[in-house]
TrEMBL record:
This is Aspartic peptidase domain-containing protein. Residues 1-20 form the signal peptide. Keywords: Signal. It comes from the Eukaryota. One of its GO terms (molecular function) is aspartic-type endopeptidase activity. Belongs to the peptidase A1 family. GO terms for biological process: proteolysis. It comes from Crucibulum laeve. The keyword Signal applies. Residues 42-360 form the Peptidase A1 domain. SUPFAM superfamilies: Acid proteases.
């Protein structure tokens, strides 16, 4: 299967582009298989301290985190034995992603990603936040987080996984990664792939859609851009849309669904016969909708439209159905969040050499 490519570039890594002119051939992709946990978060296996831990992926931060053995708020998965950490902490760090947070000491650890053939891809002396307090970020179903972001919010790109690899591999400024996600489901053993260090050319087709990343105070996330337009179409009951650009949007597979400003999400579901507000969490509001609803959501990024149909917008669970479009619990939040439901319709590519985000098309 191949997809349309969506690619993002980030301006603060421009200085790496001077290395690319005389640099060696980019490395081939490291294929890392993904599963999902009970919360539909995408998970890779990370080995360190002779133990394999389930880490969720997030674009919202560049930090990596692991639950400490003494963390009472980190869920019930495998914990990291703090007594096995060599050396002294290099300070402490608070990590926030879209309303969730975690904090702990920063330690250096020799880590490895488990690849598709069960071999290990090593990244030694990687900064790891050993979490002793978590407010939702490290929780039931995972032991930690692999941050695929840039740490643009505090300027510490060198502490991210990509930044650390680049700083120790002089000349490889064109390094990147690709995300090929299957739609988010609970406890899937085949949820897609992370293509580490380089995108997989067989996974996408057509032209690249590029978007600049921006910094904003309205969303605590590294990967934020301006969406150009969206159109929600309800068969036999009209459509709703927004255009003109300047719609602040985060993209992150850590969240499975799509979140709109509450008033827009409420208006969309008011047009669906039988839709009922189901639950309200501290983050978002969720609607129940009839399982036979017919609808589509087209999101335009740059000049390319990405269309999601009922198979992704309607989620079945034990005979009832919920909408993949949610509304922020904070009614003043006018930003958007595109989670894995959207990302699974594109091939997400992140190059660490200039300043834009690319997406590709699947087939």
């Amino acid at each position: 299967m191949s997809r349309l490519l969506l690619a993002f570039l980030f301006p603060f890594i421009l200085y790496f582009s001077t290395w690319a002119q005389q640099g060696p051939v980019p490395p081939p992709p490291v294929i890392v298989p993904l599963t999902t946990d009970v919360n539909r978060r995408y998970v890779i296996e990370v080995e360190m301290a002779n133990t394999t831990f389930p880490f969720a992926l997030s674009l919202g931060t560049g930090y990596s985190l692991v639950a400490a053995s003494d963390c009472t708020s980190c869920g019930s998965e495998k914990r990291y034995d703090v007594n096995s950490v060599p050396g002294s902490p290099a300070g402490s760090q608070v990590v926030t992603v879209l309303g969730s947070s975690a904090s702990g000491a920063v330690m250096q650890e020799n880590c490895s990603m488990v690849t598709h053939d069960r071999s290990l891809w090593h990244y030694p002396e990687h900064p790891m936040v050993v979490v002793n307090q978590s407010s939702g970020l490290v929780s039931f179903g995972i032991s930690g987080l692999l941050g695929l972001g840039t740490n643009i919010r505090d300027g510490k790109f060198n502490l991210s996984a990509l930044g650390g690899w680049l700083s120790s591999s002089i000349g490889f400024s064109n390094v990147s990664f690709g995300l090929l996600l299957n739609p988010p489901q609970k406890l899937s053993s085949d949820a897609g792939q992370l293509h580490w260090l380089a995108p997989d050319p067989s996974s996408y087709q057509g032209d690249v859609t590029w978007k600049n990343l921006i910094t904003t105070t309205s969303l605590d996330s590294d990967w934020v851009f301006q969406m150009d337009s969206w159109v929600f179409n309800l068969t036999n009951n009209g459509s709703q849309s927004r255009s003109g650009g300047n719609m602040t949007t985060a993209v992150d597979p850590y969240n499975p669904n799509i979140i709109f400003p509450f008033d827009i999400a409420h208006s969309i579901h008011s047009s669906i016969d039988g839709a009922v507000l189901k639950t309200q969490t501290s983050m978002s509001s969720v609607w129940s909708i009839p399982c036979d609803s017919q609808m589509s959501l087209t999101i335009t990024v740059g000049v390319h439209p990405y269309t999601l149909l009922e198979d992704k917008l309607i989620q079945s669970d034990g005979g009832s159905c919920t909408s993949a479009i949610e509304g922020w619990a904070d009614s003043t939040n006018d930003a958007y969040l595109f989670g894995a439901t959207f990302i699974s319709s594109a091939y997400l590519c992140v190059p660490a050499s200039s300043s834009i985000l690319p997406m590709l098309t699947s087939s």
